[in-house]
UniProtKB/TrEMBL annotation:
Its EC number is 2.1.1.-. This is U6 small nuclear RNA (adenine-(43)-N(6))-methyltransferase. Keywords: Methyltransferase, S-adenosyl-L-methionine, Transferase. The lineage of its organism: Eukaryota, Metazoa, Ecdysozoa, Arthropoda, Hexapoda. It holds the Pfam family Methyltransf_10. PANTHER family: RNA N6-ADENOSINE-METHYLTRANSFERASE METTL16, SAM-DEPENDENT METHYLTRANSFERASE. Belongs to the methyltransferase superfamily. METTL16/RlmF family. One of its GO terms (biological process) is rRNA base methylation. Residues 369-381 have a biased composition (Basic residues).
């Protein structure tokens, strides 16, 4: 499914390029285009040379950038890179940086193309001053050549990182360096894994684009998850010397784990987004330790688009009570809300609706593995469990003496994207009371609606 409709609204590549017009402007594309039966020009995206030519032509036409892309290096996907830059501009706007004459940014791993610093400087109309960090010597040389070729040495500095297993940021930052933001597009793969990861479904099609980039650009010890965890740990030491830390994340499972790491590190000033383009989705995360950079002020455009829709889609619906189970509708509603509150969910009434509707927000999955939780509760009530319970509370700090989540845990839960956001609707029908659930967002996905509905059925009036 094409994700272009979810692309950033300011992204100029929401519409596919007109190859006929582009070939007139960049005649060299003629060698890698074909004409179909309808007379339309088409590009073979599985051809590495075609991708390279297309990228250089678009950069020249749309941004006035002349870039030399070495044949063995990663060809940047331009719509994706622009999505990241536009999100950084959204952060800039929400934090009140747009009025500044200069904003200083750091790109961790700028690559041979130096695409993010180049795009950032040009798109900001030369307000941004960028430093590109790069480990590979040949990529450093190519990046500097691209900066010099566009006469942007005044705005972009390419620095070679020290090799080895040292720090990612701390060695470079020294004692004096400060930045308004940093950005990162880490290598996706662990160097012990194959380049092709297992699909969640066997029906997934092969990638439509050619694979580009060297192993050293695509792989790193521990993959992107370990790389980002190192940056997070270093950020806990550097704190406000970088006002806002950001990164792209390539795999959803890693994105979900990064959110959990943020909770465990008690990093609460966090915002997230998605980068959608073509057939691909990536994730973005930003965090800060500065009281002057409240990331809660950054608008969630996906949430805005959901709230702007008149309908939230066809709900999952199931019978939860028979008419004889309760006296009236109010009693059914009271029973339902009691069950939901036992899960420590946020339940917000939706005003102005004709039916009884609520917004559900879950910061954690509290409805799964209930049998295991009941067994654990019984174990804790057994003789000799008092000392074990005290030790467990000291270790995890997750619960108060009455078993409710501690303030610390709740603040950690509130720091990141909710596990689930949904709309609930209670209806009365001829044979009983029905609960409808409509998915809005959240990393738990639509499957969570079935789980919550089943939990309600099992526990209401029990």
């Amino acid at each position: 499914m094409s994700m272009n409709k979810f692309m950033h609204p300011r992204n100029i590549y929401r519409q596919k390029p007109d190859f006929k017009a582009l070939v007139k402007q960049c005649p060299e594309l003629t060698a890698v285009t074909t004409v179909d039966l309808n007379g339309k020009l088409k590009l073979d995206y599985k051809d590495k040379k075609a991708l390279q030519l297309l990228t250089t032509c678009l950069l020249k036409r749309d941004f006035g950038l002349q870039i030399d892309l070495p044949p063995d290096k990663l060809v940047p996907t331009l719509p994706l890179r622009l999505n990241y830059i536009l999100w950084l501009e959204d952060l800039e706007d929400a934090l009140g940086w747009k009025s500044r004459p200069e904003v200083r940014g750091l790109d961790i791993g700028c690559g041979a193309s130096c695409i993010y610093p180049l795009l950032g400087v040009v798109h900001s109309k030369h307000r941004w001053r960028m430093v590109g960090l790069e480990l590979l010597e040949d990529s450093v040389m190519a990046a500097r050549k691209n900066v010099e070729g566009n006469s942007l040495q005044e705005y972009i500095d390419v620095v070679q990182q020290k090799s080895g297993d040292g720090s990612i940021l701390k060695d470079f930052m020294g004692e004096k360096e400060r930045f308004d933001f940093c950005m990162c597009n880490p290598p996706f793969f662990d160097d012990h894994d194959g380049a092709v990861h297992e699909n969640r479904t066997s029906q997934r099609k092969e990638p439509p684009n050619a694979s580009t980039g060297s192993d050293k650009e695509l792989r790193i010890e521990g993959g992107e998850l370990r790389f980002l965890e190192r940056i997070i740990d270093e950020s806990l030491e550097l704190k406000e010397r970088i006002t806002v830390y950001t990164s792209m994340i390539g795999h959803k499972k890693n994105f979900e784990e990064i959110l959990r790491i943020m909770k465990r590190r008690s990093i609460s000033n966090v915002t997230t987004t998605r980068f959608c383009q073509g057939n691909t989705t990536r994730w973005g995360i930003a965090w800060s330790f500065s009281s002057a950079a409240l990331l809660a002020n950054v608008p969630d455009r996906f949430e805005q688009e959901s709230s702007n829709r008149k309908s939230v889609g066809k709900p999952l619906e199931g019978k939860i009570l028979s008419l004889e189970d309760v006296e009236n509708f109010d009693s059914a509603q009271t029973n339902l809300l009691s069950v939901l509150k036992s899960l420590d969910l946020q339940i917000n009434p939706l005003k102005g609706e004709t039916e009884h509707m609520w917004e559900l927000v879950a910061q954690d999955n509290t409805w799964s593995h209930q049998r295991r939780k009941r067994r654990e509760a019984k174990r804790k009530l057994s003789p000799g469990s008092e000392n074990r319970n005290n030790q467990e509370r000291e270790l995890d700090g997750a619960s108060n003496s009455d078993g409710t989540p501690s303030k610390k845990l709740k603040s950690e839960q509130n720091c990141c994207e909710p596990v689930l956001k949904a709309v609930l609707c209670l209806k009365s029908k001829e044979d009983g009371y029905y609960l409808g659930l409509s998915y809005l967002s959240g990393i738990a996905g639509k499957d969570a609606l079935n789980q919550i509905l089943q939990f309600v059925k099992n526990n209401i009036c029990s």
